[in-house]
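Preliminary data (for renewal application), zinc ion complex.
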Amino acid sequence: MTDTTKQELKAFSVQADEYGCIVFAKSGIVARRQGANELDTEFSMIESCRRVPALDKYAGVKGGVPWKVLVEEHDWSQECPYCCRRVSNDEPDRVWNDTASQVYCDVECQARQEDVERTWTAEALAKSSNQRNKEVV
Ligand SMILES: [Zn+2]
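Predicted structure:
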């Protein structure tokens, strides 16, 4: 593919069994493939891939669609990093981090998670920040 300009890219919501993502592509089939890649799953495992015109404006935006927009305006849920519960916009006590990239069930989970992260940072400054890495003991 050549000369993909930002204007031509459309937003698609690609959903697999457990997780989903927003990808920007010219067509549904490309979006589906890209989504499978991003979700680290097989093409055939993608359950749905649908256009979300309201999110087209985020094409080419660094970091993509903010999680806060997805959860608050598009009924997505995000896992609380501390207790792993899915948090959606009907969670009355939910709180967002400063960059609107992470939601927590409540201030308590946020405080606990920040403690955990402080410990991690201290222990693993030199390590990769790739969350998919697993520690081999
Ligand atoms: Zn939580």
